[in-house]
Specification:
This protein has 281 residues and is mainly β. The protein contains 5 helices and 25 strands. The strands form 8 sheets. It has a 6-stranded antiparallel beta sheet with strand order 20-25-21-22-23-24, sandwiched between helices. Strand 15 and strand 16 form a beta hairpin. The protein is globular, with a radius of gyration of 20 Å. 41% of the residues are buried. The mean pLDDT is 97.
Amino acid sequence: MDDPRLTPARPDLAAKYLEGKVAATRFVSGEEFEIADPLAPLREGPSSEAVLLTQALKGERAVIYDRDGEGWAWGQLNSDGYVGWLPDRALAKPAAKPTHKITALRTFAFPGPSIKLPPADTLVMGAMITVMREDGAFAVTREGWFLPRQHVGTIDHYAADFVGVAERFAATPYLWGGKSSLGVDCSGLVQVSLNAAGTGCPRDSDMQQDGLGRALDQSEANKLRRGDLIFWKGHVAIVRDADTIVHANAHHMATVIENTREAIARIKAAGSEITAIKRMS
């Protein structure tokens, strides 16, 4: 059965490309939009009280299949295929292609070429922007925002070490469905970090276990390397070195660097065994 998280199909409506594969009252082609807000919630239902499934970052594209007329749009993110409800206000017709992205954990967008001005907005790592020109220490976007140049990289700039990216999130508050340094969950941390290093990554930990790297056998699992991923049911952690992991978790309600053996014992005591260890290279 197709994963409903990645399949834009409801009993009343489905994507045109699924015609003949799923049952639905009608099929629509959908329309592409870009995420205009710095960070947009993708929710389980058309309500600000619905569960946060993930977040879409500025500059991402989504195909929208339905708009309920009450401020919500149902569609699928192009980046990782996740399906859910986005706020209508977060969407805009696609304009210029992004040229740059935010490489800092987060940065301020100033309305002019001075850091003394009150920021117009906050952008997070991975947000994509179109830079029109440079002005001294700033990159100027098509919105007229002035961003510190050292917080901006070209669209094809990738971090050398995804674990190093994850380490920078230490002390970030835990947020179910979160994908930024304002709040992140375990699989969001893995996805954002791998994406920053140029590696595609599914959204949820079970998808990551199924789709990333190669499984280690017992002899290899005793010699963990930086960049290995440890999976439990509903959880994932990134190996830093022989003794420590970095992971976003609800026990600490934060992203933490933790002793690996102690974390494994703590999680086992809570009733969960390791389900897989995957090596990315």
